[in-house]
Write a structure and sequence with these properties.
By secondary structure, the chain is α/β, with parallel strands linked by helices. It has a single domain, classed as UDP N-Acetylglucosamine Acyltransferase, domain 1. Helix content is 21%, strand content 26%. It has helices spanning 5-10, 20-36, 44-54, 119-123; strands at residues 57-58, 63-64, 68-70, 76-78, 83-84, 88-91, 96-98, 103-104, 109-111, 113-114, 128-129, 132-134, 139-140, 145-146, 151-152, 157-158, 163-164, 172-175, 180-184. A seven-stranded mixed beta sheet has the order 2-5-8-13-16-18-19. A five-stranded parallel beta sheet has the order 1-4-7-12-15, covered by helices on one side. Strands 3-6-9-14-17 form a five-stranded parallel beta sheet. Strand 18 (172-175) and strand 19 (180-184) form a beta hairpin. It is globular, with a radius of gyration of 17 Å. Belongs to the transferase hexapeptide repeat family.
Length: 189
């Protein structure tokens, strides 16, 4: 039995993004994003209800300021009291989990989507993904990039404009391109 491109994508294997199920999901996401990002004032409770109805999880008191962008939505889990500022992008072809009380600055990109290193596979338009996990009580500064497969530990801080290519230990502060440790902070009690 042949597996669908969506099944391959969700398993983290090489897949072709033009699979019909994937294209249908992307179209559904585009419609939702148009509603979520529509100009005008929306009641915070109504906006949160949209998040809860569309994402895999959006915990209580979570705020995602529009505009917001994602691939699919159903692979995004946001804990309680998570805050994403304006213009954040999450490429969620694989699970992206963000823990309770994490603050994410404007223009942050969290990318679970990746491309093969082999040029023949790229020419064949293959892609794959790796999950991203961001712990609780983290702070990610404006314009930072969190790359595929990265885990950010609880209480970590990522400096503005950083490119996070490797896991960040709990309580660490990292900054730069690529992000490197600056100092460790005591975990919240």
């Amino acid at each position: 039995m042949t597996r669908s491109e969506k099944d391959k994508m969700l398993a983290g294997e090489l897949y072709r993004p033009e699979g019909p199920e994937i294209l249908a999901d992307v179209a559904r996401t585009a419609e939702w994003l148009a509603r979520y990002n529509a100009p005008g004032v929306m009641d915070p409770a109504a906006r949160h209800a949209l998040l809860r109805a569309f994402l895999a999880e959006a915990g209580p008191d979570t705020v995602v300021r529009p505009p917001f962008y994602c691939d699919l939505g159903y692979n995004i889990r946001l804990g309680r009291n998570v805050f994403l500022n304006y213009n954040c992008t999450i490429l969620d072809i694989m699970p992206v989990e963000i823990g309770d009380f994490t603050l994410i600055g404007p223009g942050v990109q969290i990318l679970a989507a990746d491309h093969p290193r082999d040029p023949a596979q790229r020419r064949a338009l293959l892609e794959f993904g790796r999950p991203v996990r961001i712990g609780a009580n983290c702070w990610i500064g404006a314009g930072a990039l969190v790359l595929p497969g990265v885990t950010v530990g609880d209480d970590a801080i990522i400096g503005a404009g950083s490119v996070v290519t490797r896991d960040v230990p709990p309580g660490a502060t990292v900054a730069g391109n690529p992000a490197r440790p600056v100092r460790r902070t005591a975990p919240a009690g």
